[in-house]
Write a structure and sequence with these properties.
Beta-lactamase; 30% helix; alpha+beta; three-stranded antiparallel beta sheet
Length: 407
């Protein structure tokens, strides 16, 4: 099964690490980070993951209350050229973008410009399906809250329109390939829902595409601009951006992406490119996945965004964002999906990201106050085995850490 971008949903002494020799101006780190226990075990765990899965490069960071406690790069940003990874290198973060989109929605709710009970297609009132297609009547009942919770009625388990439909949706409207985010939504408006909205959880990239368009409609700005001004800049992560797909458009500080050796190269989805390429460079379009998986960031920037959530939202708004949904399938479960984040165990809130096969990420705020992020430039073929090691095992190590620091 080919999955594009989804969620699964011994400690050494503490020491201070900020690999200053790898530091670039694009990613400033505090010159003298304070010690936090557990960093040696955490770093060893990341190294073991890289070696076991034969991942070319990675970067990791730990932040608390806006201060960088740890930042380190591993392996290669470009394996072919033997270019070492540096703290300032940026990586595709895949679905770790979803918390950013959820924060944007909650800011608009907080300001009174949007309600969680609003129906999505009342906001996106000018979106229409392809000619000759009839809408499922349940489509008009989907709410903003249901999109945040992945209970909108879309089922991507047998094929994700955000990746599989980049030719199909463009062709349906006679528009250039690959399809734009709006094209994908309008194409799916002509398809039946898989289930009634609210009936069950089914992770949906399409739903978060819709949330990105809602942000645009309500804020009267592009998704990327809104997020940059209202989330990334205040969090100290203004270097983040929506990534590009074509190699010629990728900035020099962004890493090279390496498909897993078992992955099969693909024909590019770009209409003017008939070259067979690694999937990471044309099998899909970064521009089409902006609000559910499109951001590119350093590990430090990604950690700073999630660390800043209590400063980006009022306490009552954050409480609403993290509340356990009143849905029967979450009763008695130790973990659940709230608005754009998973909650449970030592993880106060966080998210994983995975892009076939060139990128993986995790970012999590722990209950002890630490926020950590790890980014990789290859997604191992054994996704189900890798993601818990990336997120939960890392969280377990740092959950035992002592966040107290010198004043």
């Amino acid at each position: 099964m080919r999955r594009r971008d989804f969620l699964i949903s011994s400690s050494a002494g503490g020491f201070a690490v900020a690999t200053i020799t790898n530091l670039t101006n694009a990613d400033p780190v505090a010159a003298a980070p304070k010690p936090v226990s557990g960093t040696a075990a955490f770093e060893g765990h990341v190294k073991n993951l890289i070696a076991k899965e034969r991942i070319p490069g990675a970067s990791a960071a730990i932040v608390r209350d806006g201060r960088v406690l740890y930042a380190h790069a591993f392996g290669y940003a470009d394996l072919a050229r033997k270019r070492p990874a540096r703290i300032g290198n940026r990586f595709r973060i895949a679905s770790s973008t979803k918390p950013i989109t959820a924060i944007g929605i909650m800011q608009l709710v907080e300001s009174g410009k949007l309600r969680l009970a609003d129906r999505a297609f009342d906001v996106l009132s000018d979106f229409t399906p392809p000619k000759g297609r009839t809408e499922d009547p349940r489509l008009r009942t989907i709410t903003v809250q249901q999109l945040l919770l992945h209970v909108g009625g879309f089922d991507s388990s047998k094929g994700d329109i955000q990746f599989e439909g980049l030719r199909l949706a463009a062709d349906a409207f006679g528009r250039p390939r690959p399809a734009k985010p709006r094209d994908l939504i309008e194409y799916m408006m002509g398809q039946p829902l898989a289930f009634s909205p609210g009936a069950r959880y089914q992770y949906s990239n399409l739903g978060y595409n819709m949330l990105g368009r809602i942000i645009e409609e309500v804020s009267s700005s592009s998704y990327e601009q809104y997020v940059a001004e209202h989330i990334l800049a205040p969090a100290g992560a203004s270097g983040m951006y929506i990534g590009k797909t074509r190699p010629s458009q990728i900035p020099p500080d962004e890493v090279e992406y390496w498909d897993d050796p078992q992955a099969v190269p693909s024909y590019s989805v770009y209409q003017d490119d008939d070259v067979v390429r690694p999937y990471a460079y044309g099998g899909f379009a970064m521009e089409a996945i902006d609000s559910h998986g499109g951001h590119v960031a350093t590990a430090t920037e990604l950690a700073r965004v999630i660390d800043a959530v209590p400063r980006l939202l009022k306490p009552e708004t954050l409480e609403q964002m993290l509340a356990r949904p009143d849905l029967p399938f979450y009763k008695g479960q130790p973990r659940y999906y709230a608005f754009g984040v998973t909650v449970g165990g030592s993880i106060a809130y966080g998210h994983n990201g995975a892009l076939t096969w060139g990128a993986a990420s995790t970012v999590n705020k722990l209950r002890n106050g630490l926020t950590f992020a790890i980014v990789f430039n290859r997604l191992p073929f054994d996704i189900a085995g890798f993601l818990p090691q990336m997120q939960e095992a890392s969280a377990t190590i740092l959950a035992a850490a002592h966040p107290e620091m010198e004043s």
